[in-house]
Structure formats: structure tokens, C-alpha cells
């Protein structure tokens, strides 16, 4: 292993000026379900309207608490909104690193895709995205703890992800980074997809090489141009990894992984049932024109596969099906389901580009949509 429908959730939109005053836009709280919301405890709540106007907010209105995750560009923090005591996840990205690693387009694309359900804002050093806090932690952590999932557990999570992929593809969005680390469990154990940094709205194909090596489809590696079929390939990899505890193609070197993906030889553990093998083979078809999910029947072909027989798709969509893992938690701000990370030092927080004066933002023009 590597070191609403299910993509829904309540988001918050506001834009903060470089001085932190938060004076540019009025905040709106979108109800993305259209007819219902859920509290931190998972209780269903009736909304008063689809969009509710709120005063402007800035960083001063939030308390940063524990680190939930770290990455190349920054961190995700648990944060508490001081006025309501509600908890959120705040993604903080260092603009210097985003620019240095040539990820400006990906970050702007992520913001664009999440803009109606999540909220990005900005200051002279960092980019921020305020997200729903999903209390159950990463599916990766639960998988690592279990070693591998049972067939029934895997089928539950895979089916919810099918619904998520269907939804994104209906909006002409490809996700491109499906893996256990990017799947969170909510308070009732249902899947939420996170990290849309590689997601992109497309009408046909795109040619950017991006994603996690073990999950890359052959057409991405070969720079042939890729589209929605890459998400169905990744689903096949994910189902294999949940059932086996490891991905089907792995190597110490990324190029070794690519060679194995292109060779296309899958060695199934003996405990895999025939229907699981058949589904995975059909999803991991190198020729995307013959890949399950990309045929004439579309996602319906995936739903109707024998391995998914008995799945209550409507019940899953409405979150009426009991999840196999219900994450334990003591209070709405409980972080016990997440890994522990050392908090950043003051020196790390204050690092800036050499030769750039405090309060001066040379990258503002690159993030005008924030």
C-alpha cells in the first residue's frame, strides 16, 4: 500500500481580501441536496430555503484546531466556526509551492468544481478552502486496520462510488484521483469523495498526466488523451485493493508500476470469487472502447454486473442502507478517526518567498477566481 449522493455535503462560500477583512462578498450557504441537510450527528434537517444569506466572514471567525492531513502544498485543519461552534475542514495551500510545482491550473480547477458546495478564500500567502468536516476519517485507514475488506463491505463502498462517478460524469467532470486516501466516511459510515485537485470538466478528452501511479489507466500513461473511462479503470483498481489489501499493479519504482499496468497481467488472490474477478477484468480492460462503464449501456452496465446483484441502488442513493463501518466518535469535533500529525512550527507558518515583502502578493493574478 501507499505511505454526495456520496459527493454531496454542505459548503460555504465567501471571498476574503488580502488583508483578511472578508469584506468582498456576502456569504451564501448552499443546500446541495435541494431538499434536506444533515447535522454533524447525522440527523436530517429541513432547510428554510436553498440559499441563506449570511454576513461576511474571515479567518478571524475561525479557530484552527488539529491537523487532519498533510500534502505537498499545505495542510487540512479541523476548524471551528466561532459564531456557531460548528466544525469544518479547512484546506490551506501555500501559493509559493503551488506555483513552484506548476499546479496553478489544477488548484483553480478544483476551486471551480467545488465552488457551489465548498468555499475558497485567499490572503497574500495562502489559499484556503472551507469544507465539510467528515468525521469518520479516510477509508484507507479503515482498510489498513482491517487488512482487507470482506466482499459485502467492498460491494457497499464500490456501489456508493459508482453513484458518485455517475453523478460527476453527468456533469462532464472526470475525477482522476480515486483511491482509498481520497474517500472519507461520514458519521454514519457512508462514503464522501474528497480532494478534487485533479478533477476536470471536459467534453471529450484531456492530455494532462496526473493521478496516483497505481491507479493510472493505460491511456494516461501513454498520453493518448483520456476522459471519463479513466474513472471506471480506477474503480477496478479500488475494488481489487479493498478485497486484497493491496493494488493489482505495484512496484518500488513508478516506472515499474507503469510497465505492469501496460502489460495488463493481473494475479488474483485465491479468495476472490469469480464474479469479482470478472468485474475487475472488465473494468481493467486496456482498450477503453471495450471497458465496462464506457460501453453503450454506460454506468448501467456496471450496476447490472452479477457482482452487484442484490444492491439496493435507490436505498444507497437515499442513504437508507446500513453501512458496514460506523465510525466511533465522542463529539462533533472528534479527530480520533484521523492519523495524528505534528503541528507546524511558527517558522514553517511564516516561511515566504525570498525577496518578497510581507503583505505583497506576487501571485494574486494567478488566483483571480478565488
TrEMBL record:
Keywords: ATP-binding, Kinase, Nucleotide-binding, Serine/threonine-protein kinase, Transferase. InterPro entries: AGC-kinase_C, Kinase-like_dom_sf, Prot_kinase_dom, Protein_kinase_ATP_BS, Ser/Thr_kinase_AS. Residues 21-40 have a biased composition (Polar residues). GO terms for molecular function: ATP binding; cAMP-dependent protein kinase activity. It comes from the Eukaryota. It is an enzyme of class 2 (transferase). Gene3D superfamilies: Phosphorylase Kinase, domain 1 (3.30.200.20), Transferase(Phosphotransferase) domain 1 (1.10.510.10). One of its GO terms (cellular component) is cAMP-dependent protein kinase complex. SUPFAM superfamilies: Protein kinase-like (PK-like). Its EC number is 2.7.11.11. Belongs to the protein kinase superfamily. This is cAMP-dependent protein kinase. Residues 309-370 form the AGC-kinase C-terminal domain. It comes from Cetraspora pellucida. ATP binds at residue 91. Transmembrane segments: none annotated. Residues 1-47, 328-355 are annotated as: Disordered. Residues 62-308 form the Protein kinase domain. It catalyses: L-threonyl-[protein] + ATP = O-phospho-L-threonyl-[protein] + ADP + H(+); L-seryl-[protein] + ATP = O-phospho-L-seryl-[protein] + ADP + H(+).
